[in-house]
Design brief:
Elements (H helix, E strand, L loop, with lengths): L13 H4 L17 E2 L1 E4 L2 E2 L8 E3 L2 E5 L10 E5 L4 E6 L2 E6 L4 E4 L2 E4 L5 E3 L2 E5 L1 H6 L3 E5 L4 E5 L36 H4 L15 H6 L5 H18 L2 E2 L5 H10 L1 E2 L4 H15 L3 E14 L6 E13 L10 H7 L11 E11 L12 E3 L8 E5 L2
Parallel strand pairs: 2-14, 16-20
Antiparallel strand pairs: 1-4, 2-3, 4-5, 5-12, 6-7, 7-8, 8-9, 9-10, 11-12, 13-14, 15-17, 17-18, 18-19, 19-20, 19-21
Helix pairs in contact: 6-7
Length: about 375
């Protein structure tokens, strides 16, 4: 079953749809003011980097760079006035930083949210794209993604998530995957598998999809839970965290049947308060880069981005077993206030074996951004 397709029947109620909150159940993540959202423009996914799209207060915000020079628009920036002018055919649209109104041919038009600057990027409400620039927009709330499509443009072959498949410049191990995407670098595909890999029991993503052990519908459910679980883990603030609520929510999105684990999570949250820890970040799991290492779980390769903004003592900063037991003990210290990006194989598993396991599979308690990863300091 296709999870995504561009058609007039699906592009319904656009002005209502794009103003909907792409929200997650993040009751325990009290330090998080916004949630990262995936935006796919004409089959190409916006990378998890500075100026990444996000949802806040019920509005999806996207960086202008995503649509710059597209949808038949020309743009100019007035630095003194902090105003962005877009010209599209007969329309002249002026967006001003700090204003929730655009001027369309001189007429004030409500946007639903203010134009802002964040991470050095001009962020605009998604309503600009759908209501003012006439793009086709579809929201997939299950995997927290927004699809923007230039009307009438042919995109070629897409995967079930609306992304363009490529057939050239393939990674060396391309046969391990069900398909290769245009917006993923070969570095991510060619990254080594987990050190816990058991060859005789392992299986590639290509085979898992071929035998329908993994389906697009099933992995979409898992990705939703992964996003929620890691939104909790990567957005903590000592000023606002409630240890009991945080532990309850994180435990809900972990595969762990032993209740003592919830106590451990609560102790971590209490340490967050005591050690004045503040972290912000997101992950972007890739549904096509999944494999079974032979240890009973699955690994979903994910792009990640995080920054540790505050702490007193460099110890147990993250809810991550490999950070606590290996990373800082090996003197691999992360810098305060610096963004880190990279790829990690995140473990997902389930203790339920009746019916479809993907209805229950979620983040494994021992999943890590450090056990098997590539990590870069963002300069």
């Amino acid at each position: 079953m296709k999870l995504f397709s561009i058609s007039k029947s699906l592009i319904i109620g656009m002005s209502v749809m794009v103003s909907m909150a792409l929200t997650m159940n993040t009751a325990g993540a009290e330090g998080a003011s916004s949630q990262a959202v995936s935006v796919i423009f004409d089959g190409i996914k916006s990378p998890l980097a500075a100026g990444y799209p996000y949802a806040e207060n019920g509005i999806t915000m996207i960086p202008f760079r995503i649509i710059s020079g597209k949808l038949g628009t020309q743009s100019s920036w007035n630095a003194a006035a902090k105003a962005l002018t877009l010209k599209q055919k007969e329309n002249n649209i002026i967006l001003t930083v700090g204003s929730s109104y655009a001027k369309v041919n001189g007429v004030p038009t409500a946007l639903g949210a203010k134009v802002v600057q964040k991470d050095g990027m001009t962020m605009i409400p998604l309503t600009v794209v759908s209501d003012l620039l006439g793009a086709e927009v579809e929201v997939d709330e299950l995997i927290q993604s927004v699809h923007i499509h230039t009307p009438g443009k042919e995109l070629g072959k897409l995967d079930d998530f609306g992304r363009k498949i490529r057939t050239t410049n393939l990674p060396k191990n391309y046969k391990d995957y069900p398909y290769i995407l245009e917006d993923i670098p070969n570095e991510m595909y060619e990254m080594k598998n987990t050190i816990n890999y058991i060859v005789k029991r392992a299986d590639t993503g290509a085979n898992l999809y071929a035998i329908k052990r993994v389906t697009s519908e099933g992995i979409a459910k898992v990705i939703n839970r992964m996003n929620i679980g890691y939104n909790l883990r990567l957005n903590v603030d000592y000023k606002t965290i409630n240890p009991v609520e945080f532990a309850r929510e994180v435990f809900k999105y972990e595969n762990q049947s032993v209740s003592v684990r919830e106590n451990y999570i609560r102790e971590y949250a209490e340490w967050v308060k005591k050690n004045r820890i503040q972290i912000e970040g997101s992950i972007d799991p890739e549904p096509s880069v999944i494999y079974a290492p032979g240890t009973g779980d699955f690994r979903v390769r994910s792009k990640f981005r995080f920054r540790i903004n505050s702490f007193t003592e460099y110890k147990d900063l993250m809810l991550d077993e490999y950070f606590s037991t290996t990373h800082y003990k090996n003197n691999e210290r992360l810098k305060k206030g610096v963004w880190y990006e990279g790829y990690a194989d995140i473990a997902v598993s389930t203790n339920y074996y009746n019916g479809d396991p993907f209805n229950h599979m979620t983040v494994d308690a021992l999943s890590s951004l450090f056990e098997n990863s590539i990590m870069y300091e963002v300069k």
